Amino acid sequence: MAVVLEGLVVFGGGLGAGLVTASKRRRGAYAPGTHAAYDEAMRDPIGRRLRQGYASVEVGVWLDLASDRNDESPEDRLLVGGRYGAWVGARDPGLELDRLVLQPLAERVATDGAAYVDGDATTPFRLLIDIVHPDETRQERAYQLLESLLARYPGVFTRLVDGAVVPGPVTVILTGDDVPRSLLAAQLDRAVFADGTFADLGPWGAPPTLAPLLSEVWSWRFGWNGRGELPTAERDRLHRLVAAAHAEGRPVRFSGIPHWPLRVRTAFWSELSAAGVDLVTTARPRAFATFRRGYGSAAPALVPPTRTRRRDATVPGHVLVERTPRHAAEPVLGGPAFGRARVRRRPASPLGSRVVRSAGAARAGTR
């Protein structure tokens, strides 16, 4: 009996380990154009995001100096943690950036040659790191420590070598308000880059070798909130900025996009896709990737579905259906499958009309 129980325990342990290993190896479908904002409460900042398919992920780190600790460890560490010190008091070595983020990415690249087997081979996975210390000295020490960690994984991360960019499967970009730009600009050999803004466009701004990505919050330059028509002046400004960034070989990322309501979110996605924006911060990577893959198809496919009654489900979704009294003498669609419905060939709302026009603009821009 004891032998049988021991065998069951061994079998159960092996099965559990196998399930854990299979879970870790599970690959999420690549969701192009998606960026995940940093979540302070997430203890696994990269594994879950990779399973969700994000093309770009942001994490926050803080510098744990050996001089600030009471233990005997002589090493400074970069730990994943919140801007407001959510985990600072714990000083848990299990929160090290290398173990939680860099190693999983390096293992994926070693196995598949990229972060995603179904991703675009010409587009790197972007890892944005926000060093939360405003102190300049700690910022510089954190950067030096990050460079030493990335050097452990040759061939994984994009590097600047003698002033020329050598692409890799993963590109590391420092973001936030306190990036030590002057320190990065002085280095001709490094694996870390800076997050830029549209102010870096042109010869007076930071070059692409320093700021290869331009990121801004939508409200910094635009007042449109997704309701009503996007003003022509703002649409023209958006298209000009994105075109100027692309002319310099720099992708564009926007954050601060509303998640709800659905029609507002879809309106933003339509305008950003029409302008060619490369990355959008979103909490719904699958929905955005599906939308982006279908963008440029027939306009009705991009209009948010209108509410119709169950009996009118066979009427095309882009047509507004209204019930009419049985005694009304108006023409109706033939056949019992359609029921008695009067069709108005106009959008259900001004928003629907705007999305249709945005879709048309996108098709014209992608030819």
Descriptive tags:
367 residues, alpha/beta, TIM Barrel, 8-stranded parallel beta barrel, two-stranded antiparallel ribbon, 9 helices, 13 strands, globular, disordered N terminus, disordered C terminus
Fold topology:
Blueprint: H1 2-25, E1 31-36, H2 47-52, E2 54-64, E3 77-80, H3 97-112, E4 125-131, H4 136-150, E5 159-161, E6 164-166, E7 170-175, H5 181-185, E8 192-196, E9 213-217, H6 232-247, E10 252-255, H7 262-275, E11 279-281, H8 285-294, E12 320-323, E13 341-344, H9 350-366
Parallel strand pairs: 1-2, 1-11, 2-4, 4-7, 7-8, 8-9, 9-10, 10-11
Antiparallel strand pairs: 2-3, 5-6, 12-13
Q: Describe it for me?
A:
The chain has 367 residues and is α/β, with parallel strands linked by helices. It has a single domain (26-305), classed as TIM Barrel, CATH 3.20.20. The protein is 34% helix and 18% strand. The chain has nine helices and 13 strands. It has helices spanning 2-25, 47-52, 97-112, 136-150, 181-185, 232-247, 262-275, 285-294, 350-366, and strands at residues 31-36, 54-64, 77-80, 125-131, 159-161, 164-166, 170-175, 192-196, 213-217, 252-255, 279-281, 320-323, 341-344. It has an eight-stranded parallel beta barrel with strand order 1-2-4-7-8-9-10-11. Strand 5 (159-161) and strand 6 form a beta hairpin. It starts with a helix and ends with a helix.
